[in-house]
Amino acid sequence: MFKKDLRKLYKVKRSKLSLDQIDQLSMVIANNLLKLPIWEKTYYHLFLSIEEQKEIQTEYILHILHAKDKEIVVSKSNFENNTLTNYLLTDNTKIKKNQYNIPEPIDGIEVPHNKLDVVFIPLLTFDKKGNRVGYGKGFYDKMLANCSPDCIKIGLSFFEAENEIADTFEGDIPLDYCITPEKVYSF
């Protein structure tokens, strides 16, 4: 299927999930992350969930990262050029929803993309080769292009892999892993 069609399909699938289902599935996904060999790293980029889009609740992952005493990085979106600026999440970080209901840091200690060791990536769906479909603005592709080559890219999905995304292009950056409630995919 094409990205445009997959976006529509998976937005509908997510819209049918209840808040209880989202909570339960998000907890299972967070627990499945513990199976990955990623915990010796330092800087972990985590997206903050857009509740209105029924995204995976990353609060559980946040708790794991805090418990493991990791450096947690969150982003602020620039919609003029579709880029992300990363900030260290500290006790003093103030979070505010932007005009698209994305929770973001107001400001803070900036962290360059090339310092990120692990990036958790929001997505609508992915395929068996590690290609992903997001919201279509390219924020994460631009950021990932500036990360170090050994940065680990992890997608989080409520649903299992599609066989193939038909219209991938060379600017798309594939995942290393994708975590679902049922499976840990490795690419």
What features would you describe in this structure?
By secondary structure, the protein is an alpha/beta fold. It has a single domain, classed as NagB/RpiA/CoA transferase-like (Rossmann fold, 3-Layer(aba) Sandwich), CATH 3.40.50. The chain is built from four helices and eleven strands; from the N terminus they run ααβαβββββββαβββ. The strands form three sheets. It has a seven-stranded mixed sheet, with helices on both faces. A two-stranded antiparallel ribbon has the order 4-5. β4 and β5 form a beta hairpin. It starts with a helix and ends with a strand. The model has no long low-confidence stretch (mean pLDDT 95). This is 5-formyltetrahydrofolate cyclo-ligase. Pfam families: 5-FTHF_cyc-lig (PF01812).
Q: What is the topology?
A:
Elements: H1 3-15, H2 19-33, E1 43-45, H3 59-67, E2 71-78, E3 83-88, E4 95-97, E5 103-105, E6 118-122, E7 125-126, E8 132-133, H4 139-145, E9 152-156, E10 177-179, E11 184-186
